[in-house]
Amino acid sequence: TAPRVAALAVLADQPHADADDVARGVRARIGSVSVQAVYDVLGALHRAGLVRRIEPAGSPARFELRVDDNHHHLVCRGCGEVRDVDCATGAAPCLEPARPRGARTSGDAALDGFVVDEAEVIYWGTCARCAAG
């Protein structure tokens, strides 16, 4: 649909955009559209695996097209800028849940049936622009 194509175009131009940013960009491309319609589009694109949703604490959810690799995010505490950071320790999955006390193995057995399907790592700091004051 036109809103989906427009939302993908906005995210190609503005990685890490929130829903309001995407809505403004979609409106600029195709005209009137509600924020709720944009949330619905972003939800559908996320479920289809075409966009990734990241949720920095205290910030609105952000969306990006980079879904085909394992990477992290760096968020500026001052202005909220979000940047991609390649995986800190290697190929996916770069993080593994800690082994519970007394467990002899890691993985699903040690997690008592809990299956991890996603890990989100967010580094917090201050960007150069905010640090410069």
Mean pLDDT: 85
Major sheet details: 3 strands, antiparallel
Low-confidence segments, given as residue ranges, are: none
Class per helix and strand makeup:
alpha+beta
Give the strand tally. 6
Cofactor: Zn(2+)
Subcellular location: Cytoplasm
Main location: cytoplasm
InterPro entries: FUR, Fur_C, WH-like_DNA-bd_sf, WH_DNA-bd_sf
Word description of this protein:
- There is one protein chain.
- The protein has 133 residues and is an alpha+beta fold.
- It has 2 domains: 2-64, Arc Repressor Mutant, subunit A (Orthogonal Bundle); 69-133, Ferric-uptake regulator, C-terminal dimerisarion domain (Dna Ligase, domain 1, 2-Layer Sandwich).
- 32% of the residues lie in helices and 17% in strands.
- It has helices at residues 2-13, 19-30, 35-47, 128-132, and strands at 17-18, 52-54, 62-64, 71-76, 82-86, 122-125.
- The strands form 2 sheets. Strands 1-3-2 form a 3-stranded antiparallel β-sheet. It has a 3-stranded mixed β-sheet with strand order 5-4-6, with no helix packed on it.
- The radius of gyration is 18 Å and the shape is globular.
- The mean pLDDT is 85.
